[in-house]
Structures are given as structure tokens and as C-alpha cells.
Amino acid sequence: MPDRPVSPRPVEAVGIVGWGRMGGPMGQFLLDRGWNVVFTEPSAQAREAATAAGAVDAASPAGVAAACDLVLVVVVDDEQVRTVFVGADGLLSAARPGTTLAICASVRPDTCRELAAEAARHDVFVVDIALVGGERGAEQGGLKLFCGGDGAVIENARRAFAAFAIDVCAVGDVGCGQVAKTVNNLLLWSCLRADVEALRLGRALGVDPGKLRAFLSVGSGANRPLAEWGMHRLRWPGKDMEVALGLAAEAGVEMPLMEALAPLMEQTTKADLDDLR
Fold first, then answer.
1. What ranges do the domains of the chain cover?
2. Which CATH code for domain 13-174?
3. How far apart are CA 151 and CA 99, in angstroms?
4. In the 8-state DSSP scheme, what is residue 234?
5. Which residues pair with 132 in a beta bridge?
6. pLDDT at residue 1 in the model
7. What SS3 class is residue 165?
8. Within 10 A of 178 (CB to CB), how many other CB atoms are there?
9. CA-CA distance, 131 to 155, in Å (whole number)?
């Protein structure tokens, strides 16, 4: 990114936009580590939980930005991220120069770049920190962050990130964290679906799936979804596949295996995993 006349603000207060399945545990770990946390969240139940934990309700993204040096945007999709940034009472209406806005939602890389360019006009920094590890990782404080953006900006926020993440990986420019997560999730869902079909075959041929998983763990077919069997909640594979295939089409990259995988993942449920314990 181009040089700017400001440096990242030292992080003393951390904001969270979205105190949900991911943002809530992240905020709790920040509070537990002694950080000042300010938030905004539309759900009354989540707001009550956040304030009971000790976070300060700023009532709007603008209120969060005005009070914080680092803001974690933990919403659902591209449209919500854009609204949080540039909508009425959005972050950029109140963020001070040098503030860092971290896009934690799974969105398109070009959305990250677009918003980073807009933020730069306000002397505000944007990084994308794709969250790897899912809800279980968030609940355990064990997320892995695939980060895109200026290395100095990421490093400035690293101490805050460490409150809820065990790995902070600087991948490249803004948007690269999203690319890395997309590739990661393609491999995750590929392994998981292959595991389902392979274990079904093994059971049909007379080998108990639980025993088979133990044997496979020391074989060349070992993979992480197999080792963590039953732990994946399968909330987002459809979205992951849609984003990946859309990016592939725009890049002119053929992905016949992933095209075949997308409808198979739509059919795969938590019950399928439980059935193969």
C-alpha cells in the first residue's frame, strides 16, 4: 500500500462490530486478557451478554470507531461489511487517523481492497484477518489468522490478536488473507467429503468407522478433518464453495473437482458425521 502521513495508532482500546458466534468469544478473550473493549451489536440478547461481560456498548459502528484504535468487523458477508464501513453511522464517519479496521468476515478479496482504498482517503488502515478454526476455534481462543495488509499495521495489532488467536500469519497485501482462507477451506471440505465416502465404504465392507479412523491416522490417508471427526459444525460450506467457484471463474481457473464437490457438500450434514463415529 502507498506510504501515508500517519502511523498506526498504538492499540489500547479494541472495538468489535458483531458480538455473535465468532465476535462474542473473541471479545470475551480480549476482556479476559485485560483489554478495553467497545462493541456494537443488533441483537438485544447479545448486547446484554456483552455488557454483562464488561464490554462498553457504543450503539453504532461510528461510536465504536470513535472510541477505538483497532476495530474487528465480525459480521457475515460483503454487504454487511460495506454497510459497517460506509453506511449511515459507519466506521469511516468517525475513525481517527491511524485507526486500524480489521475485516474478519469471509468476503471477497476485492471487497477488502475496495474498502482499504476508501479508508486510505481518511488516513485509516484496513487489514483483512480471515478467521480459520471456526466457532470451536473462537470458543477455545485458538483461531488462526490469515492476514492481508501492511506488515507494520498487522504487527502493531498482533498483541491484541494474540488474545484470541494462536497463529497470526501475514500472507500478503490486503485481500490475500481471504484468498488463503478460501484455499484452506477448499481443502478442508474436500477432505471431509472424501472421508465421509471412504468411511461409508469401509463400513459396508465390514470395518467399524471408529476403528478405521484410528488405523487411518497412521496411514498416508491421514488428514485433519479425519482426526477431528465430528467436531465440524458445517455451517458455512455452501458459502465457502460459492465464493471459491466465483473467484475461480473470474480468474479463468478450471476447478472440475470443486464444481463436483459443491452440491455434495450441500448434501453433507452433521448427522452424516455422527453416523460414522
1. 13-174, 180-275
2. 3.40.50.720
3. 15
4. -
5. 144
6. 44
7. strand
8. 27
9. 17
| C-alpha–C-alpha distance, residues 238 and 265, integer Å | 7
> Which superfamily does 180-275 belong to?
N-(1-d-carboxylethyl)-l-norvaline Dehydrogenase; domain 2 (1.10.1040.10)
What does residue 14 show for φ and ψ, rounded to 5 degrees?
-115, 130
3-state secondary structure of 54: coil
Distance between CA atoms of residues 57 and 54, nearest Å: 9
d(CA 196, CA 134) in angstroms, rounded, equals 20
Q: How many other CB atoms sit within 10 Å of the CB of residue 55?
A: 26
For 127, phi then psi, to 5°, come to -130, 150
Q: What residue type is assigned to position 197 of the chain?
A: E
Could you give the dihedral angle defined by the CA atoms of residues 165, 15, 233 and 149, in that order, rounded to the nearest 10 degrees?
Answer: -60
Residue 56 Ramachandran class (φ > 0 left, ψ -120 to 50 alpha, else beta): beta
Name which of 270, 257, 272 is nearest 136 in CA terms: 270
117 within 8 A of 106, measured Cβ to Cβ? no
| Neighbouring residues of 121: CB distance < 8 A, sequence distance ≥ 6 | none
Backbone φ and ψ of 147, nearest 5°: -105, 135
pLDDT at 5: 72
- Of 123, 83, 87, 133, the C-alpha closest to 103 is 83
Q: What are phi and psi of 2, to 5 degrees?
A: -65, 155
Dump pLDDT digits (tens) for 165-220. 999 999 999 999 999 999 999 999 999 999 999 999 999 999 999 999 999 999 99
What is the C-alpha to C-alpha distance for residues 117 and 111, in angstroms, rounded to an integer? Answer: 10
Distances (CA, A) of 274 to 163, 235, 265, 270: 32, 15, 16, 6
What confidence score (pLDDT) does residue 2 get?
46
Residues contacting 175, CB < 8 A, separation 6+? 109, 110, 112, 113, 128, 148
- For residue 92, give the C-alpha cell: 469511516
